Amino acid sequence: MSKLVKKVGSKKFYEIEGIRAGGIIPYYIKDNKVFLLINKEYRRVGLVYNITGGKVDEEDKIIEDTQIREFNEETGFLISSKIEDYKKEISKNRYYFETPKYMLSLIDIKGEKNWLELPENYDKTFKNVEKTNDRDSEELEWIELYNFKGKSSYLLTVILHKLKNINLFRKYNPVQHQLFID
């Protein structure tokens, strides 16, 4: 159950078990490369790459509620029925980031067509539609984990650094350092 942690003016901030925000990164592996779905959105510094996620709301009961709600909002609810199929994986494949009090979940979409086409479908659906509070993403994009050079938010920078070093993805790093023993 979310709990109010502070109020700044009329804005309220909530957390669930010490976690203040969460997100989901769908991924797949093809030709020994790791691909991640991220978004582009406007921040104070301009248009940057970011993660599909956001802050805990008052109605969120568990952090997975936050993650799924935010993912759906930022992907225009285009794949909301599919994300429900991944609830178990969202709860299982998680990484906590202490400084931003952020919970990230990874879901392996195994190259499913609906997921792969999500950025294109998002663009077609929302290209000329006025942006609302429930849709923060300017666009969605599949990026290659070890070859990404875009301008990213602080949070995405921290997350990509961690993901490059987790066991799940480390073996796909094209610049693996060999251990030499004398």
List keywords for this structure.
two-stranded antiparallel ribbon, globular, Nucleoside Triphosphate Pyrophosphohydrolase, 182 residues, alpha+beta, 31% strand, 9 strands, seven-stranded mixed β-sheet, 7 helices
Task: Describe what this molecule looks like in 3D.
The protein has 182 residues and is of the alpha+beta class. The protein has one domain (3-167): Nucleoside Triphosphate Pyrophosphohydrolase (Alpha-Beta Complex). The protein is built from seven helices and nine strands; from the N terminus they run E-E-E-E-E-E-H-H-H-E-E-H-H-E-H-H. The strands form two sheets. Strands 3, 4, 5, 6, 7, 8 and 9 form a seven-stranded mixed beta sheet that branches. A two-stranded antiparallel sheet has the order 1-2. The relative contact order is 0.21.
What is this structure's SSE topology?
Elements: E1 3-8, E2 11-15, E3 21-30, E4 33-43, E5 46-50, E6 53-55, H1 63-74, H2 80-84, H3 87-92, E7 94-97, E8 102-108, H4 113-116, H5 118-126, E9 139-144, H6 154-163, H7 167-170
Parallel strand pairs: 3-8
Antiparallel strand pairs: 1-2, 3-4, 3-6, 4-5, 4-9, 7-8
CATH topology: Nucleoside Triphosphate Pyrophosphohydrolase
List low-pLDDT spans: none
Shape: globular
CATH class: Alpha Beta
Give the overall average pLDDT: 92
SSE string, helices as H and strands as E:
EEEEEEHHHEEHHEHH
- Please, what is the CATH homologous superfamily? Nucleoside Triphosphate Pyrophosphohydrolase
Number of domains: 1
Spatial extent as radius of gyration = 17 Å
Count of beta strands: 9
| SS-derived structural category | alpha+beta
**Approximately how much helix is present in the residues?**
25-40%
CA-to-CA gap between the ends?
A: 55 Å
So, CATH architecture?
A: Alpha-Beta Complex
